[in-house]
Amino acid sequence: MTPRFAAPDTRAIPLKILPRAGFDDWLAAQDDPVRDWVTASGFTADAGSVLRLPAPDMSVSRVLLGWGGAKDRARGRFLAAKAATALGRGTYALDGDLTANETEEAALGWLLSSYRFTRYAGDPVDPPMLKAPRGVDAARLEAIAAGEFLTRDLINTPASDMGPDDLEKAVRDLATVHGAAVEVTAGDALLDANLPMIHAVGRASTRAPRLIDMTWTGPGAEDGPAVTLVGKGVCFDTGGLNLKPAASMGLMKKDMGGAATVLGLAHMVMATARPIRLRVLIPAVENAVAGNAFRPGDILTARNGLTVEINNTDAEGRLVLADALALADETPPDLMICMATLTGAARVAVGPDLSPFYADDDALAMALMHAGARVRDPLWRMPFHRPYETMIEPGIADLDNAPLGGFAGSITAALFLDRFVRDTPRFAHFDIYGWNPTAAPARPKGGVGMGARAIFDALPGILDA
Q1: Burial of 297 (0-12, 13-18, 19+ CB in 10 A)
Q2: First-to-last CA distance in the chain?
Q3: What is the Cα–Cα distance from 398 to 393, expressed in whole angstroms?
Q4: Do 342 and 261 meet the contact criterion of CB atoms below 8 Å apart?
Q5: What does the CA dihedral 259, 152, 351, 458 come to, rounded to 10 degrees?
Q6: Helix intervals (H) in 76-163
Q7: Residues with active-site annotation
Q8: What does the alpha-carbon distance between residue 168 and residue 110 come to, in Å, rounded to a whole number?
Q9: 3-state SS class at 102
Q10: pTM given for the model
């Protein structure tokens, strides 16, 4: 479904937001029937609690939404989404003393709560509707939610229906909606185009590897700032000849989560007509096992001429990204963002909720961090720790794709990718998870976008700096 707000003239039931502080005073000011109903129901404004207040005809006159205390709101995002989940069909309007950021988060959370993945089971449902609160940019929030829905759908779709060819179709469909252009280099043509590592990783699959290149120019942005998004599109990762055990392979349909996330972000940018020149590069492959699979011990030569010793075929994401980053760097954009479900080390470091990212540019990093805090899309800056460069230099080749020892796995992967970005002035790499293991308000279990809302929010300030 397309996330949207109710029409402005729709009659709506007030949704009264009540923080715990001041709740007793509010209750004391109500008439006896309301006070008795609230007291008998045990409602005390706990975070996310919902109570319907009846009218004399027993219809719902108002709904109370507990807002808890400051610590509750810091611990839990999208409290208003709890009301959207608890309430049945109908139209509601926020009623409460919220800051601008809180109002925007509440409205976006309501939209995000309507997501359902019903491609294979279940039926679409008519969610409760919310009138766009006064002061929020409704079209912008609808674009953000739609971008997130696209990301979730792509990640949730199993590899049987989301191979490199299917991912290409998803890009072409998005381009058609927004008037973007798409060029694809696939199969052995990758070798002719000097994209050898994308070819090497994907050649063992029956579904041809490819580089998907989408470009779009915003209104009046012919000479505007250029932004390139690069997303890892490993549609399924068996580990290659270093075959993953079953426990590690079960979620590998999500290994194209970086591609899914940059496509969701691209939708946000294009749907809101940002005045930029946008390029999206997705190396789309399946890391499979066959007689022509690349092997441990092989040495590959990347697009930019660097040689890479393969010490583990399960560290394939950085290989396909390397060629794409090198290509992007040949016509340096003003800003390049790389997003990938790259390392388990990142999950060990920060868990599934935070998006760790790497950036040498302090102003860029601070802009991203501040945006992440503002829109509740939490990020964590990680270090490009240069003394670890020696860990990715095996001696027999320029680079090692999987340093031994297990130390600093996310950092060494980021340092590897950084070797392929030489001329772009501002570069950030996100090592995301792309999966929500436990259902939370506005974030059901399954595929999830990470970092995209923060990047989207930060873009104007970054590009104007």
Answers
A1: exposed
A2: 37
A3: 6
A4: no
A5: 70
A6: 79-86, 100-112, 138-156
A7: 244, 318
A8: 31
A9: helix
A10: 0.97
CB 154 within 8 A of CB 162: yes
φ, ψ (nearest 5 deg) of residue 248: -90, -10
DSSP letter (8 states) at residue 77: S
Q: Which tokens belong to 332?
A: 């340096």
Question: Looking at the domain that runs over 141-464, which CATH code has it been given?
Answer: 3.40.630.10
Q: What is the DSSP string of 283-351?
A: EEEEE--STT---TT-EEE-TTS-EEE-S-TT--HHHHHHHHHHHHHTS--SEEEEEE---HHHHHHHT
CB under 8 Å to 246, separation ≥6 — which residues? Answer: none
Per residue of the chain (465 residues), what is the pLDDT tens digit? 799 999 999 999 999 999 999 999 999 999 999 999 999 999 999 999 999 999 888 889 999 999 999 999 988 899 999 999 999 889 999 999 999 999 999 999 999 999 999 999 998 888 999 999 999 999 999 999 999 999 999 999 999 999 999 999 999 999 999 999 999 999 999 999 999 999 999 999 999 999 999 999 999 999 999 999 999 999 999 999 999 999 999 999 999 999 999 999 999 999 999 999 999 999 999 999 999 999 999 999 999 999 999 999 999 999 999 999 999 999 999 999 999 999 999 999 999 999 999 999 999 999 999 999 999 999 999 999 999 999 999 999 999 999 988 899 999 999 999 999 999 999 999 999 999 999 999 999 999 999 999 999 999 999 997
Distances (CA, A) of 372 to 98, 287, 365: 19, 32, 11
Identical topology for domains 13-114 and 141-464? no
Domain parsing of the chain, residue ranges: 13-114, 141-464
The values of phi and psi at residue 183, to 5°, are -125, 140
C-beta separation of 254 from 234 below 8 A: no
Domain formed by 13-114, architecture: 3-Layer(aba) Sandwich (3.40)
With beta carbons less than 8 A apart as the criterion, state whether 254 and 236 touch: no
Amino acid letter for position 220:
G
- Separation of alpha carbons 239 and 272, rounded Å: 39
Integer Rg of the chain from CA: 24
Taking the C-alpha atoms of residue 193 and residue 141, their distance in angstroms, rounded to an integer, is 39
d(CA 439, CA 283): 30
